[in-house]
Every structure is written in structure tokens, then in C-alpha cells.
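User: ok so my PI wants both of these folded by tonight, can you help

Assistant: No problem, let's get them done. Here's the first:
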Amino acid sequence: MSFQTGHIGLNVTDVEASKEFYRRVFGFTVARESEEDGRRYVFLAENGTLKLTLWQQSEGRFATARPGLHHLSFQVADLEAVRRAERVIRELGAVVHHGGVVPHGEGATSGGVFFEDPDGIRLEISAPDGAGDRPAPTTGAPTCGFF
């Protein structure tokens, strides 16, 4: 038996704001949505494949101190794609951790940008190579674990 991640479902406080955020940062398209009161949701796709579902059924901010999701990581082909996403993230005024693009750890060439969505859900967009010329923000530990 083999498992691979299907799609990711997130609870959000404002489905419209989150939809626009994920469309702009990731280039996702709307595959399906509901505007029915009490049942608002959006299905977001990439090249016809469902990637992310947003469900408007939460309040407040993402609780990093509680058990559950730590962060979502998306990989792209190269560091230039990470930088393009970082520009959009900054235009949207999202929280960016570590000051921008950083390696995954000491001596790593892979790396990315670590940031938050409108509800404070921690996200990462990374590339397998090209970030090794920058210092790692966390000594002796993976960057993605401590933001």
C-alpha cells in the first residue's frame, strides 16, 4: 500500500479573504465554491487537480501552541519561483518569518520563504536548491520547525 497526500482542508475565518490570498500567492483557480450561509467553502485547484479546500467555520487566529497542524509546505522547481511568490506575499502584507528566503538548516542548499496566511496558518514555499548562500536562522535545528 502506498499513500500520498490528496488535498489539504483548512478552516478559515473569512473564506473570501483566504480565497484571494491563496489564489494570488499560489496561482490556484476556483474549482467549486458555496456562498450559502453557514456552509461557505471554496475548492482550489492547480491544473485541474484539487489542492486546497477552505471551510469558513472558525474564529480567531491559528493556535500554534495547541496540538495539530504545525505548517504546510509547498515545493516549487527553483529559487526564482520562491522569490516570485515572496514578492506577492509581501505585496499582500502577510507576516514573513526569518526576514525572507533562508535555507532549511545549516549547510543545506534547499530553502524557502516561511510566512502566514490571513488566519495565521504557517506556510512554507521552498525549492530543492539555491538557498545555501544564506545563513540558517536556527542553529542546530531545521528552519521549518521553529517559526
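One down. Here's the second:
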Amino acid sequence: MSDERQNPAEPTTEADLDPGHYHLRLYVAGQTSKSLAAMANLKRFCEEHLAGRYDIEVVDLMTNPQLAAGDQILAIPTLVRRLPSPLKRIIGDLSNTDKVLVGLDIRPKVDAP
């Protein structure tokens, strides 16, 4: 089950403490084409590779610019993998699936024969 939050909060649920659960924070700036592409690509990626094991938090820096400092955001859109540790960052619209897989340390799921 995915949970898309608009306001950042630290993970507190049992699922967030599960080492197989991914807590992802996407920093965007308004409804630009790159921001919208990053959101759509992230949702598609998560459903394909992390179904039931993720939650997405979208932080719009147009409304909350002070939040950029917490994760040291220098460019947008930026995806931050907060959990599992260690923290990872990917900059861009997330259209390159291989780059996202490598950047988040996720291996493509292999269907059983």
C-alpha cells in the first residue's frame, strides 16, 4: 500500500521501520513539466518494483522552501530515499529506470519459473 503525503513528517509507522519498506521523499517546485514527470515516473517505478513496500512524500519547495535545507537539496526535482538506510539522492525526472534502480539499490524483481 502506498501513501502519498503532502507534508513532510518523519517515518513513524511499523511499515516505515521494516527494512524492506522504502520511504521516499520527492522534492519538486510547483507543477512544472519536470516536476509532474518526476511524480508520474516515481509512481510507475514504485508500482513496478516496490509494490506494497513504499510510501512517497512529495515536498513542494514553492510552498515550503525552508524544507530544502534538511535534505541538502540543491537541484529539483530530487528524490531522497530516507529509508532503508543509508540515505540516497537522485536528481532529475526519474525517466531512466536503470539509473533509478542503481541509485536506490533496488534490483529488478525476477519472476519465478
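The CA atoms of residues 23 and 74 lie 20 Å apart. The beta strands are 4-5, 22-28, 54-60, 78-83, 88-91. Good luck tonight!
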